[in-house]
């Protein structure tokens, strides 16, 4: 739902930067011989030459469009160069494009607050930079203005016949009688042109930009003159810009709301909205949406540029159109495994590089039910707490899928009827990880201690009683939608495939144990490039609209009594022994390598987890670390008065050496420590209250020390 944000009276300078034919530029940088040639990037499958996902401006001149397939593109432009998108795990691998986007951001972020809006789009708040420039080097005082700035398009600036457009722009930029807003805007135009030139110099990519006093207008403007150009929106031109702007092209009006405006109110352009009072719009669409609509008609939007260089969520998805629809659980599982593997890799890169951790796993799917035209797209999205580790993510995603499927079948007034029920088909699958936050700094050293093994990798915080309804109301079957879910320890991963297949066969009796069904057929499979740096950049291939992963808050939590009982039993067993303690116990013996422990646990799993049910032993060695929600840890003075006093221990045998600093311990994890350590750490963390209560370097060092 759109959110109405009032605009402040302060002048702001916001720019929206959008890369030009981005994937093509990335490929052309890789293969320089393609530069200047009509080029398109296609999906990996070869059906009719593959679907075009990015088209160079040279190719666009020939009439090549993104909606075409490779063969069609060749018909209109025989010399077109078609480059296949890189492939990994049977689907598009977008890492090269993501990394290229990051390169651009690292340049742009130097000048102001920067928000990564998608793989190739960025918002920047340049207000401070523009104000500084106005004070120190106002355009009217500049001797020379760069050509790139003079090439700007200034909306509302009419180029009378015979006059030099660049000269007109120069005059506009240097007006001494301009109002403060326009003066700032002129500075913004100069700064953005410099930034774009810098991006080109450092990355070899061209981009286009819109410069205005809010995000909405900046975004509209960036698309107006492409490629490699910039458009400035003075306040006096806002009405002119919006007057004829198609309502459905406005952000958040591409769907039902936009359609309702068209059909119910006859609003086809943003300007048409001006006819309606705020009150009328509020009565029709609610207070918030009504005000938002009233605002956008006037170009009002107070939305801030969020300082965010990193994606808000990660996603991986794939479409299975037409005959490629997935019709067995095994084939769904196969593809979920691929998607989850990719997601897991990205989560771990994010953790390694940015020290961030995601909290929520969500499964999205589209499905159809034979003979029920209403069934399409009703597949409910499901969420659960995210557990790190590829196998765990795969397992949880499958559980979420099954929960969704039960509900979906419920929607369609039918039941899953075992082996041969092929009346449903899955046409797209996606997994996403959201609620990503920095790991509290106090846990870093502990993470290091585990030799890169994230504590949560061995977490037993299973989603089986935490399946969360994402997008649809609870169905009657909801409360049992996950009954029979498998659960495993990370240490049990070696035996899980067998067990999982047994479980699946027992539950659904599906064929296709190889899970390769989507490979059969005529190569129709299309990729969804569900990029999710922001959650709003999930891109589908042609024929599919861009898909957005819902970022809504989960609405309901399904409880599953039977599984809850199992968990309760295990919780009871574990009562009194806190999770970090258990984690330490698993690791503190240096004579046992991780591999040995895994092997031993796998052995145990073989004997304890056969079939569709898992014994409580499966949980009995659960290690659970709840990472605190806080995103930072305050510096804590230690008892010896130094700001960074530390205590260290070394692990000589079989593991990398490790150390910890007292001031790196997050107070919120102290409860996880064994009681004797808690006491000691608390004493250190509150030196002023309880000085010298505990002798430094005694029990905690002893405890952490691997030779203990
Ligand atoms: P866009 O910014 O929409 O387009 P573009 O950069 O190719 O071209 P333009 O100059 O007109 O902005 O998308 C950015 C990249 O995202 C694009 O290069 C390829 C990818 N993409 C898809 O994979 N599928 C899609 O449906 C769309 C729209 C884009």
UniProtKB/TrEMBL annotation:
Residues 545-556 have a biased composition (Basic and acidic residues). One of its GO terms (biological process) is DNA repair. It comes from the Eukaryota. Its cofactor is Mg(2+); Mn(2+). Keywords: DNA damage, DNA repair, Magnesium, Metal-binding, Nucleotidyltransferase, Nucleus, Transferase. Pfam families: IMS, IMS_C, POLH-Rev1_HhH. Belongs to the DNA polymerase type-Y family. This is DNA polymerase eta. It comes from Senna tora. The lineage of its organism: Eukaryota, Viridiplantae, Streptophyta, Embryophyta, Tracheophyta.
């Amino acid at each position: 739902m759109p959110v109405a944000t009032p605009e402040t009276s302060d002048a702001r300078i916001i720019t929206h930067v959008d890369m030009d034919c981005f994937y093509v530029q990335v490929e052309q940088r890789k293969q320089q011989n393609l530069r200047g040639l009509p080029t398109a990037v296609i999906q990996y499958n070869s059906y009719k030459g593959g679907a075009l996902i990015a088209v160079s401006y040279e190719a666009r001149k020939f009439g090549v469009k993104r909606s075409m397939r490779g063969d069609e593109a060749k018909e209109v432009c025989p010399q077109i160069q078609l480059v296949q998108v890189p492939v990994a795990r049977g689907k598009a691998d977008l890492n090269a494009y993501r990394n290229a986007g990051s390169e651009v951001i690292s340049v742009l972020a130097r000048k102001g607050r920067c928000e990564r809006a998608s793989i190739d789009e960025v918002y920047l708040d340049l207000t401070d930079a523009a104000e500084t420039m106005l004070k120190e080097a106002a355009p009217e005082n500049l001797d020379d203005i760069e050509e790139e700035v003079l090439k700007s398009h200034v909306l509302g600036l009419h180029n009378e016949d015979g006059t030099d457009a660049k000269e007109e722009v120069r005059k506009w930029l240097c007006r001494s009688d301009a109002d403060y807003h326009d003066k700032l805007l002129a500075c913004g135009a100069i700064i953005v042109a410099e930034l774009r030139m810098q991006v080109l110099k450092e990355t070899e990519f061209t981009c286009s930009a819109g410069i205005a006093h809010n995000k909405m207008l900046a975004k509209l403007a960036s698309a107006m003159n492409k490629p490699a150009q910039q458009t400035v929106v003075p306040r006096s031109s806002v009405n002119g810009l919006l007057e004829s702007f198609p309502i459905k092209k406005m952000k958040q009006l591409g769907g039902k709301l936009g359609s309702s405006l068209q059909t119910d109110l006859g609003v086809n352009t943003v300007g048409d909205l001006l006819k309606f009072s705020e009150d009328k719009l509020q009565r029709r669409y609610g207070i918030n949406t009504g005000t938002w609509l009233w605002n956008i008609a006037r170009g009002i939007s107070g939305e801030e540029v969020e300082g965010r260089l990193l994606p808000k969520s990660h996603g991986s998805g794939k479409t299975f159109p037409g005959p490629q629809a997935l019709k067995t659980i095994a084939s769904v599982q196969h593809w979920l495994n691929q998607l989850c593997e990719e997601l897991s890799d990205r989560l771990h890169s994010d953790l390694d590089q940015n020290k961030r951790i995601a909290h929520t796993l969500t499964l999205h799917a589209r499905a159809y039910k034979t003979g029920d035209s209403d069934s399409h797209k009703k597949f409910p999205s499901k969420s659960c707490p995210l557990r790190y580790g590829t196998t765990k993510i795969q397992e949880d995603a499958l559980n979420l899928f099954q929960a969704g499927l039960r509900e979906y079948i419920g929607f369609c007034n039918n039941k899953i009827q075992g082996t041969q029920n092929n009346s449903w088909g899955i046409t797209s699958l996606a997994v996403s990880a959201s609620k990503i936050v920095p790991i509290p700094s106090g846990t870093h050293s502990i993470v290091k201690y585990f030799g890169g093994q994230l504590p949560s990798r061995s977490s037993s915080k299973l989603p089986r009683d935490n399946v969360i309804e994402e997008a649809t109301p609870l169905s009657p079957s909801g409360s049992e939608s996950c009954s029979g879910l498998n659960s495993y320890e990370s240490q049990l991963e070696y035996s899980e495939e067998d067990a999982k297949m047994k479980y699946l066969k027992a539950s659904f009796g599906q064929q296709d144990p190889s899970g390769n069904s989507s490979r059969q057929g005529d190569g129709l499979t299309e990729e969804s490039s569900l990029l999710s740096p922001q959650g709003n950049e999930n891109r589908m291939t042609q024929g599919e609209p861009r898909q957005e992963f819902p970022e809504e808050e989960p609405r309901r939590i399904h409880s599953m009594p039977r599984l809850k009982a199992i968990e309760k039993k295990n919780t009871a067993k574990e009562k009194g022994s806190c999770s970090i303690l258990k984690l330490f116990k698993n690791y503190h013996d240096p004579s046992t390598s991780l591999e040995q422990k895994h092997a031993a646990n796998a052995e145990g799993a073989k004997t304890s987890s056969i079939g569709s049910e898992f014994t409580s032993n499966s949980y009995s060695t659960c290690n659970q670390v709840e990472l605190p929600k806080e995103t930072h840890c305050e510096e804590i003075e230690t008892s010896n008065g130094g700001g960074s006093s530390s205590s260290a221990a070394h692990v000589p045998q079989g593991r990398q050496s490790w150390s910890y600093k007292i001031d790196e311990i997050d107070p919120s994890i102290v409860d996880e420590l064994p009681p004797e350590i808690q006491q000691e750490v608390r004493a250190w963390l509150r030196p002023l209250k309880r000085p010298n209560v505990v002798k430094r370097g005694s029990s905690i060092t002893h405890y952490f020390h691997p030779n203990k």
